[in-house]
Amino acid sequence: MRQRPGGGGEAGSSRGSPGAEAAAGVGLWLRNPDYLADELLNQVEAGKLDDAAWALERADALLKGDEPEISRYPMVRWRFGAWEALDDALGLLYAHGLIDIVPVGEPPAKVDRWDYYLLPAGRDMAAELRTVAADLAWYDERAVVVLAVAGQSSGSQLKALQYAQAEYERTVWKASISGITDRVRERLAPGRCPARSTPSMTSAAAVRSSPAPRGTTSPR
Predict the structure, then answer these.
(1) pLDDT class for 210, splitting at 50, 70, 90?
(2) In the chain, how many domains are there?
(3) Which residue has the higher pLDDT, 10 or 219?
(4) CA–CA gap between residue 55 and residue 147 (Å, rounded)
(5) Nearest-angstrom CA–CA distance, 199 and 205
(6) Given this model, what pLDDT does residue 83 score?
(7) Could you tell me if residue 1 is inside a domain?
(8) Is 0.70 topped by the overall pTM?
(9) I want to staple 111 with a disulfide (CB 3.0 to 4.6 A). Which of 11, 42, 90, 103 is the partner?
(10) What gap in Å lies between CA 85 and CA 117, rounded to an integer?
(11) What is the dihedral of CA 58, 59, 60, 65, to 10 degrees?
């Protein structure tokens, strides 16, 4: 999140996802631990993540036990990939004054996109939920991993990464996108995961095993 620029709206609000396509892109990883674990492996092998050891630990955790099943919330394959209408969920948040929804372009005749802003009341509500609903801690933890993988990618770039998954690409229109848990577990198995022996992995493991200099903190 970043602070909302001037030009209207409530002071202190923060910008969230710039558009529904980006929201759907990060949503697939947030709601499907197996797809997120697979993309972690892809990025470790490509040398795109600074802390390969952390990424592999997260991939292991995402596939542990029945985590892929209990955390999966399937998405439907629509015309341009994974999709879910945001109106109902965002409408509820908007009605309670937790978010703002701002058209970008020349509304009402021409709207290029919709930007979503988390308002101070929304941040306060999220902080309260962290205190009173400890079971939701997984959401914060998962969001950290999703953001590490997504980086500054646009919605179309996220979709391109996800279309590279054969199971995703082959899903017929209006059907739920199937899971890939077994394939990713096989890929991550000891002795079968090239990412565990990449130079970046070896370097990261060495750094993590060394005492951290005073005044520094873990990247997590």
Answers:
(1) very low
(2) 1
(3) 10
(4) 12
(5) 10
(6) 81
(7) no
(8) yes
(9) 103
(10) 18
(11) 100
As a whole number, the mean pLDDT across the chain is 82
Look at the alpha carbons of 92, 102, 160, 55 in this order and tell me if their dihedral is positive or negative. negative
3, part of any domain: no
Categorize the per-residue pLDDT at 1 as very low, low, confident or very high, splitting at 50, 70 and 90.
Answer: very low
The structure tokens listed for 136 are 């939701």
Q: Does residue 167 sit within a domain?
A: yes
Instruction: Specify the 3-state DSSP secondary structure of 109.
Output: coil
Q: Does the residue 70 lie in any domain?
A: yes
Strands 110-118 and 99-106: antiparallel
Determine the residue type at 88. Answer: D
Tell me how far apart the alpha carbons of residues 185 and 35 are, in angstroms, rounded to a whole number: 11
Q: Whole domain around residue 27: which residue ranges?
A: 9-202
| 51, two tokens | 């802390």
Coil, strand or helix at 19: coil
Instruction: For residues 21 and 173, give the distance between their C-alpha atoms in angstroms, rounded to a whole number.
Output: 17
Residue linked to tokens 């923060």: 14
Report the alpha-carbon angle 179-180-183, nearest 5: 160
Task: Give the pLDDT of residue 13.
Answer: 66
> How much is the pLDDT for 47?
94
Cis peptide upstream of residue 18 (ω within 30 degrees of 0): no
